[in-house]
Every structure is written in structure tokens, then in C-alpha cells.
Amino acid sequence: MIEHPIKDQGHSKTKKLFILIALIGATVTIVNYHNLYQKKLDVKRFQYSASRNIPPFPAKYHRGFLVSSSKCKIIDLDPFNDEAMQFHSAKRYQNCTKRQLLTYVTKEDNVATLHINTSLQSAYSLKNIRCCYSNIIRDSDGEYPDTTINISMCQEFTNSVLISQDPVMVNCIDDDGLIYENVHIAVTMTKSIEDKITKSKKRRPISLLMIGIDSVSRLNFIRTMPHTYNYVETNHWIPLLGFNKKGDNTFPNMMAILTGLDVSLLMEDKICNPYIFGELDTCPMIWKNYSKLGYITAYAEDEPYRVAFNYAKGFKTPPTDYYFKPYVLATQKLSKGYTYIDGLSYCTGPETAGERIMNLANDFSATFKSYPYLGLFG
Ligand SMILES: *[C@@H]1O[C@H](CO)[C@@H](O)[C@H](O)[C@H]1NC(C)=O
Ligand SMILES: *[C@@H]1O[C@H](CO)[C@@H](O)[C@H](O)[C@H]1NC(C)=O
Ligand SMILES: *[C@@H]1O[C@H](CO)[C@@H](O)[C@H](O)[C@H]1NC(C)=O
Ligand SMILES: *[C@@H]1O[C@H](CO)[C@@H](O)[C@H](O)[C@H]1NC(C)=O
Fold this sequence. Notes:
Pfam families: DUF229 (PF02995). The chain is α+β, with helices and mostly antiparallel strands and about 375 residues long. Helices cover about 20% and strands about 25% of the residues. It has helices at about 80-85, 120-125, 190-200, 220-225, 225-235, 250-260, 265-270, 285-290, 325-330, 355-365; strands at about 15-20, 30, 65-70, 75, 105-110, 110-115, 130-140, 150, 155, 160-165, 170-175, 175-185, 210, 240, 295-300, 320-325, 340, 345-350, 350, 375. It binds 2-acetamido-2-deoxy-beta-D-glucopyranose (NAG) (4 copies).
């Protein structure tokens, strides 16, 4: 969906493999691996202080090359060079709501509960508040199950209510009308996942968590996410310098990451035609291999109407064990507090679309921290 080049990677020390990818159009890829590379790579190319001071580099920016081989040379540009900085302006974080969230979800012993934070009621309305929730399900019977959700009748509840693994949409009204709405989800262990885990009780392999940030070049990553950049540098994550995007928009790059192949090759070799509804499901996505090995798989992407896999209306059946598209579709149906920034939905209700994805990644990886998983969140 969006464009821009370049990825980064890094490795370091946990049993997990974290990948911060620049999926999508292009982006930033960071891998955090254990002990694979003890040798510190020469990634300390510039000292970056978290303040936005422009480091004192000579105006002539090439201090060397990121990639230098007989076939390819990529200049190591100073991210803060004057030419770039002319066009760079930092944007402030914006809150999607001035108040704390009126509803939240807790989990205990794999049971999820939706709560109203009653101590916040007066902050929302001095009148009587009534809340109800609906279950969100993928319309698996419909013509386009990947882009359609069914929203059940709204059930009134007070204080708290148990919820299933489906996302829930919450609406609260007072005498004057809608005062709050949100969508929640809790990642819980399902029966089929339990079976999968018991079947694969061999030694525990490393897990893989990939975080994709769309449309962020390596240099923009350094400019716009100084703390994250600082973190990955300090921990010696390995940047995959020179691994740039291979095509325009999110889709061809995602397919390359997930299948190792170019979309045109997939089609030429009659492996699958992702542009035909139903065939995207048959493409050799890497999560299938992991799933066969007993990994629990997850996939989430914001911007459900523009995402990588909306070609030919997406997946006929959910491609991963945990597939958050119905959740994300539901968040896009929230009317209150919906805000666009640069053509993308920034606020979906009282939360930012981006933080929602990060929260899913957090919930998923924490829930399955003792099991092998492959999660891709972008
Ligand atoms: C946004 O709102 C949250 C919760 O109300 C608050 O903790 C945070 O400081 C706010 N951030 C900004 C930048 O206003
Ligand atoms: C409920 O709201 C109060 C503020 O009135 C806040 O201190 C508390 O952390 C909230 N609880 C949860 C679980 O969000
Ligand atoms: C979703 O709603 C449509 C229309 O009411 C219905 O035909 C369909 O069976 C529902 N899908 C599921 C999975 O319940
Ligand atoms: C994934 O599985 C497919 C089908 O079994 C196989 O052809 C492919 O080589 C596997 N990919 C990797 C990276 O092992």
C-alpha cells in the first residue's frame, strides 16, 4: 500500500527472534536473535543523541558506504543532512481521547472479562450511563469473508461480562446519546491451539515476532524514532543494510518476505495467483511451514481496506491461527473519534490504530511466551 525503501536488521540476545520489519512497501527491519552473531557489526556509524540535534557531520555526506561490493554501492547518507532536514518536520503524538478508556479487558486463567471502569463514569457523563457489547465475527458464509464482519445485537451489561475469543464492540450511551465506543479483543488459548501445542511437545524452538512499520525508510526510522533506534543500536541488533524494497507498494514486498518469491514468479510458475479470490490462500506463505512444525501463528495489519492482502478481496479462510482482521475491521467502523492523518486512520475510536496493533503483538506474545510462535504485526 505505501512506499519507501530500505530495511534494517540487528541481532541480539534473547531466545526469541524479534523482527522489526519493514514489510510493506518498504521499511525498517530489525532482527533480534540470540548469540548468532556475537561479533559486533560496524553499525555505530553515527552517534545519535535522543535529542533532535543534528549531529555535526560534514556537509558532504558520504562518510562511506552502507553496501560496497563490486556490483553495488549504497552511500551511507547522514540522516540529518541539511537537504533532508529541509523536508523533515517532527509530528507530535496526538491523543485520541483526553480521558482514560471507559472500558477495558482483563484475562485470568485464559478467561477474558470486559469491564466498565466505573470510577470513570462521572468523567464521561453526569447522567446515567448504559453500555452494551456486540460480538464481532468474520462473515465466513459471505461472498467476501475477509472484508466483511457480522456484528451481533448489542447486549447490555453492567460493570463486567465474560467474553469469548471474538472481538467485542462496546457502545455506551447516556440520555443524550452515544458517549463512548470502542473495540476490544483478548488473546486466549482456544481448544484447537491447545491440541496443536500438545501435539508438538518437543523441545522448545525459538519464537519469531515480526513488527512491521510501513513506509519507513531506514533514514526516516533514524529521524523519527530516535528512542527505538537507540535501543536497537545499543543492543547490537543487526541491520540488514542494502536489503531494500523489491517492488512498489506493500503487497509485493510482503509476498517476498512471506514466500521468498516475486509475485510475477508465483504466477508464472503457476504456484498461485494472488489476484484470484481464494488463490491467495494457496500461496506458500512461510507461516504454513511454521504451523506444520507446531508453531502458533498470528497476523495483524492495520488499514484493513488498503493492506497487503486485500487484492482479490483477501483470504478466503483465516491464514493464521490468530487472525486479527475482523478486529481491525471493527475498529474502522467506530465513528466517534475517528481521525485521519495523512490519509491513514490514526485514531480508531479512543485508541490509535498503530497502538492497537502493538497491543495485539504484546498480548499475543505474552500469552504464548512459553510456546513456539510466529507473529507478524504491522
Ligand atoms: C494522552 O492521554 C493519556 C491518558 O489520558 C495520558 O497519560 C498521556 O499523558 C497523554 N499524552 C499526551 C501526549 O497528551
Ligand atoms: C479506572 O479509572 C481510574 C481513574 O479514575 C484509574 O486510576 C484506573 O487505573 C482505571 N482502571 C483501569 C483498570 O484502567
Ligand atoms: C452474517 O450475516 C449474514 C446476513 O445476516 C448472514 O447471512 C451470515 O450467515 C452471517 N455470517 C455468519 C458467519 O454468521
Ligand atoms: C515450506 O513448505 C513448502 C511446502 O511444503 C516447501 O515447498 C518449502 O520449501 C518450505 N519452505 C521452507 C523455507 O522450508
